[in-house]
Amino acid sequence: MDVEKVNSMDFGEFVDVFGNVIERCPLIAAAVWSQRPFSDLEDLEKHFFAFIDALPQSGQEGILRCHPDLAGRELQRGALTAESLREHSGAGLMSLGAAERLQLAELNAQYRARFGFPFVLAVRLGDREAVPRELARRLQCPPAQELRAALGEVKKIGRLRLADLLGSPPAQQ
Amino acid sequence: MDVEKVNSMDFGEFVDVFGNVIERCPLIAAAVWSQRPFSDLEDLEKHFFAFIDALPQSGQEGILRCHPDLAGRELQRGALTAESLREHSGAGLMSLGAAERLQLAELNAQYRARFGFPFVLAVRLGDREAVPRELARRLQCPPAQELRAALGEVKKIGRLRLADLLGSPPAQQ
What we know:
Largest interface: A-B, 32 and 32 residues
Mean pLDDT of chain A: 94
CATH class of chain A: Mainly Alpha
Oligomer: homodimer
CATH superfamily of chain A: Oxo-4-hydroxy-4-carboxy-5-ureidoimidazoline decarboxylase
């Protein structure tokens, strides 16, 4: 899909295609449509990220709270979005043993209790062994630093999803 | 449900219950959770509305773009949210004749083309005859005035949905 195609979309088409670039936040894609036309993938991405950065802290936390626990209840009950399911699958998180699932469930619960949002990680950039390691490490971070780190992961996930949709390599950091 | 129950919810429960107070915008409920504890229904409502008011214009338009056309394609293909389906049903919008559906489809398309978001109306406060009449009237409004009017309807819908959830009469304006 090229950028002319993107720029020709009405808002309904745009939200259908880009509504889950930020997990379960079609509001953000629907807002970004106001900024068209876009010059390229990087420009489109820039508007998604600028919207996130401009939200009050409660809104940024709200974005995180729309994410599932990694390898958590949504996976078990088949309630992941298509994008998240693909990312779980690619990272090998569909085939964890009971002990690994229990370990992750406990770490996820500790993380949620400490920060008030779920642990978010761009798992396509790592492997399944990295998940509990990163979770345990980030559990120790100060809350303000951890909010920034988590939003950084949201953006990495969004960048990869946008690149998938547009059939291009992700824009450089 | 009383406010103590609401204040005791973790964010997952809160988003499960209040995630569609603003149509297809769970991000907003997820953000409002940051403001707990709430003193009463009116206080909870105030935080939903304050979040909407603080968004940039693109975000406010984004909220509107997450709404379905009234008696439109989402109704036809069974893709309305439970709340919206109930509101459509209560207003008699499930049983329109072909001529009425066509009239609404044409007015909805004109409205979308003029304003860049769908026509939103708190149909529980009117009747099915009011829908095309209000649509035709609001089509003539200046865009800035119409954005305010449309967000006012989003808030009326949110107020009624919150009152349903909490089992209370809606807070006074």
